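If you are new to this repository, start here. Below is one unmodified record pulled from the training split, so you can see the exact layout before writing a loader.
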Amino acid sequence: MATANVSSAVRPYSEVPGPYPLPLIGNSWRFAPIIGTYKISDLDKVMHELHVNYGKMAKVGGLIGHPDLLFVFDGDEIRNIFKKEETMPHRPSMPSLRHYKGDLRGEFFGNTAGLIGVHGPKWEAFRQEVQHILLQPQTAKKYIPPLNDIASEFMDRIEQMRDENEQLPANFLHELYKWALESVGRVSLDTRLGCLSPQGSEEAQQIIEAINTFFWAVPELELRMPLWRLYPTKAYRSFVKALDQFTEICMKNISKTMDKAEFDESQGLVKNDSDISIVERIVRKTGNRKLAAVLALDLFLVGVDTTSVAASSTIYQLAKNPDKQQRLFDELKQIFPKTDAEINQNVLEQMPYLRACVKETLRMRPVVIANGRSLQSDAVINGYHVPKGTHVIFPHLTVSNDPAYFPEPKRFMPERWLKQQPNEQAAGCPHAGQKIHPFVSLPFGFGRRMCVGRRFAEIELHTLLAKIFRKYKVSYTSGEFVYRVNSTYIPQSPLNFKLTMREE
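And here is the target side for that same chain:
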């Protein structure tokens, strides 16, 4: 009898609130150019509007060629879905990338399609082969010395970029792309791509442009009517061309790395741990060059844009909050008596406030504004029956800026993430030590589909930021950062930060 009562309390899927679909064209028109009310570049505003209008959950159904999108704005429900996910959790599929890897370039990828845009047994088999190397904390720590060297080179480049007013160029985000790309190349391939050299690198520039095009094209292909399945649209042609160029250039460097590794091994050469690339580690463990190559491609594809944007947003938040920047400087000065901060494992573990600054930035402006799952079985969410195949979206940008979870969400308060000290409230940090819901700010995802490069990204970020804020006082006078959605959440504003040298 109790079961019947519970069952009768579950409301049908048709009653889930959301924008009303029109006959025949459903809600697809909302994403259409000119007439549409939902701009892809403004998805952050769209998700906020859905939350305001419909509450804890909103359905955007009737999308021609796409499953329904179910936006869940409740932390407890997000936790329930994550906790119940299958051994092989399905992200909302990326048909364009699956088509590229499985159909267009199937002869190259075959059964080794990587981690991005892949689901089911192929994804599970691939992850099993690579996760023990990528997710071990000790593996990432082996690369601290070379990542420190690259960040130091970038600091030299920053010094050269500052103009007579001590300002960086407006396109500083592009320079951060070069730093991130050089870092990924060094970790993945034990290769220096030349991104930071005075003359630059044409290949590195082509990789960056290909990645930018990829991130622009994906939402165009995935959220608009999938006309690319009928004929090659502009976005589709750009997408394929970018991925082909990206794969060609990366594979040339990957092959060089593998050949050199095989030669070194045949000569009995003993290497330092930091000189053994991720690719070489994978080949040594599995003997599978293709698997190592596809993993490296994935790391290049998602490891450049993400860390660059996270760095730019953190610099901005600290520039706009001089009191927080001063507290960070005090922490860094204790660790580094001189302005040139040399990073090693020991000092990385002594910077809790810096880590809190990055966490707070990624709460306010996560690089990926939403995560999701494609339901593999029927579920009950927020009291509604939701059918298998629905794409459930976790809009972390909206939820982590909800005052229900973070009081005063628009205030940059890294102290939220610190264990409360006796003097915190007196220091004007009323939310220090508050209990934070563990499922409302997930910048690296959660569970078995968590970002496999997380530990490397954090080391890169903490290393560069420590060097910048130990050496310079940073300010920003160009107004509030404006962001746009381009797969990732990218600042549109100029990054002309003013960097004033600190005294020793």
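Two things worth knowing about this chain: The longest strand covers residues 57-60. Residues 227 and 330 are 55 Å apart (CA to CA).
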